[in-house]
Design a protein that fits this description.
alpha+beta
């Protein structure tokens, strides 16, 4: 069988993966805090027909002769660039300007996950939670609770959560913590706008916003997806044409094989 046919089949499979990633990016164009994916290819092994030889007294050197055997998937990156900020005017809509992730977890402060989606809410007990009911954790991995008789709530750029209590006095109830990783690209997407720590992301450094290289918090603002529709549609066209070209390779290889079979006639 022709090597070109197997190269075309492998490339078609890779372009299908690329289209899958592009489709997921477009599907999440309006998802708060979403970070787009990017597909990277690399060449597969090459078959060496003849190796290189160095020059000698009577003849110069020759270069190796190799035939490539197709492409393979090198990586599917998560691009952690800053998304555009949208003003909402809602106090519990939070955006991070700069590096870092919000930390959410269970009631004991364990099972921690990380997110850039800052749409938070209050539950029936006054705790700040995300849309799935996970608690927003403050410094020390403690939950942040707003008293039911609080007259107002405000959140500063340094993560300090303040309320005006029943007596009309300003009262801090805690500080939102942010987590920073040595390698954001090493984080694993866990669904529900959440990221999970992995062995290649490194252990997070947590603290108040603005510390340890983290960004600041902007209350009344949400970070939008960093998906660029124009870029995604361009990549979609490139993937479609690449897929189409490789189908032609398979068709042409098949025609050549047919001519070889017909030699017997």
């Amino acid at each position: 069988m022709l090597r070109s046919m197997y190269s075309g089949i492998g490339a078609m499979r890779n372009f299908q993966t690329k289209l899958d990633v592009i489709g997921n990016n477009i599907a999440n164009v309006n998802t708060y805090g979403f970070k787009k994916g990017r597909t990277i290819f690399k060449d597969l092994m090459s078959q060496t027909i003849s190796g290189a030889s160095g020059p000698n007294a009577g003849r110069g050197g020759t270069n190796p002769k190799q035939v490539g055997l197709g492409s393979q998937l090198a990586a599917i990156d998560t691009v952690h660039t800053q998304g555009s900020l949208q003003t909402t005017g809602r106090v519990l809509d939070l955006a991070i300007s700069g590096d870092g992730f919000f930390v959410v977890g269970d009631a004991s402060g364990n099972n921690r996950m990380y997110t850039r989606a800052g749409n938070f809410y209050l539950d029936s007990q006054g705790y700040i939670v995300n849309a799935d009911g996970q608690y927003l954790l403050g410094t020390g991995n403690v939950r942040l609770q707003v008293a039911p008789d609080a007259k107002s709530l405000s959140i500063g750029a340094d993560g300090t959560v303040n309320i005006v209590n029943a007596s009309g006095n300003l009262q801090p109830i805690g500080t939102i913590q942010l987590a920073k990783f040595a390698n954001n690209d090493g984080l694993e997407k866990a669904g529900n706008n959440l990221f999970r720590e992995t062995t290649n992301s490194g252990t997070p450094t947590t603290g108040a916003p603005g510390a340890n290289g983290t960004g600041t918090i902007m209350s009344g603002t949400l970070e939008m997806s960093n998906v660029d529709l124009a870029e995604e549609f361009t990549e979609m066209i490139v993937a479609q044409r690449g897929f189409q070209a490789n189908t032609r390779i398979i068709t042409t290889s098949d025609e050549i094989l047919q001519e070889l079979v017909n030699l017997k006639k």
